[in-house]
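[Help] Beginner question about ligand-bound structures

Sorry if this is basic. My supervisor gave me a protein sequence and a SMILES string for adenosine-5'-diphosphate and asked me to "get the holo structure". I don't really know what that means in practice or what format the answer should be in. Inputs are pasted below exactly as I got them.
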Amino acid sequence: MNILVLGSGAREHSICWAVKRSKKCKSLYCIPGNAGISEIAICKKIDLEKKNNLNKFCKDKNIDLVIIGPEKYLENGLSDYLRSNDINVFGPSKKASRLESSKSFAKRFLKKNYINTAKYKEFKSYAIAMKYVSSAKYPIVIKADGLASGKGVIICNKKKQAEETLDLIFKQKKFGSAGNKIIIEEYLNGFEVSYFAFFDKNGYAKLGYALDHKRAYDNDIGPNTGGMGAFCPSKLLTRKIEKEIEEKILIPTFKGLKKEKFIYRGILFFGLMITDSGPFVIEYNVRFGDPECQVLLRNLQTDFLKIIELNLKDKLRNLRIRNDKKSVICVVLASKGYPGNFKKDKVLNNLSKAKCIKDVEIFHAGTLLRNNKIVSSGGRVLSITAKADSISLARKLAYKVLSIIAWKEGFYRKDIGQKNL
Ligand SMILES: Nc1ncnc2c1ncn2[C@@H]1O[C@H](COP(=O)(O)OP(=O)(O)O)[C@@H](O)[C@H]1O
Ligand SMILES: [Mg+2]
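Answer (accepted):
No worries, everyone starts somewhere. Holo just means with the ligand present. The predicted complex, written as structure tokens, is below.
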């Protein structure tokens, strides 16, 4: 098969890596890709806003399958467009993507299908929301309805903070039109798990889970980021909880998708809070998570392209995905200053030496080639993923590689995977 992957993060690098390992892969392209991806795929720069350019590229290169990484392309309806041009796409329709692109849409879906989620209210009016927060029980969680690159959720411990947040969203338009509507929900206590399963018209196949680290600094302090690291498995997630996730969340979600007649062919990511009263859905994402994807794909035994082929034929139901019983950890190396302002174009030395360490894969995110040197071009720069017999061994490996890379322009968390020890 000739495969095209869309995106430029470490998530897409790990997707390319998994595709490349499949015997079914003949040639691999990536738009736009990065310095790491260009070592295993042919990277092209094509403006994806101009959909017909992409269609032409797919026809020229005889692309058999397009794998869409980031949610923005799904929200833009790229999967529908490609499907209508007879191109196979891994990724849900625009309509189904609303499960991620509108929080109120997702909440209504959850409620309709009796799936546990935090109690909530929707608001379009600043005045009515202000009245509500004046007598709410704190903490509360305020969320912009639309996509806000992981920045649209604010946990408010006090009334003053809630009022300031409402001002920011409704008056200062901090999130633009994504904040025209908001939801306010109750705060859930527990630990978070990212759970993944492939879904199609007739069923689903479970991939697995990973635990993410969203805050910038050790011990979960500092601002929220796209994700500073992930690991799996975790002792926290018992068989009993996994069974509950399947019965109370996966099955009713599948039935709900069917009822809505959504075209869902792709991965569905459940952002869960495991509370004392069981698992609750915080949100749906209609694509792989980053850095969870890097962790999960490293443990995947079943041929990735075989899964996608079955997914596109609506035959997932009979598939049991097999994973290695190993521990994997991913530590993100980011530019100093991320998620705020950071410098670009800083040279990364020592990568070829670091790459030689066994059982470690270095997936690139914000990197590019300049004068034969790899330089940084984004906030998150590398995903160091190590695989071993235990989380503590995997941790040692990942941090050893980071000490070899020794990038003075960057930082990383030292405590990834520690909550599992
Ligand atoms: N009801 C809630 N209770 C506690 N924490 C929450 C709640 N909703 C969201 N959060 C926290 O905020 C983070 C971001 O919320 P989420 O709905 O996943 O938005 P997004 O990923 O789109 O920014 C979650 O990962 C979680 O840590
Ligand atoms: Mg989230």
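A couple of things worth pointing out: Residues 239-260 form the longest helix (22 residues). The radius of gyration is 21 Å. Feel free to follow up in the thread.
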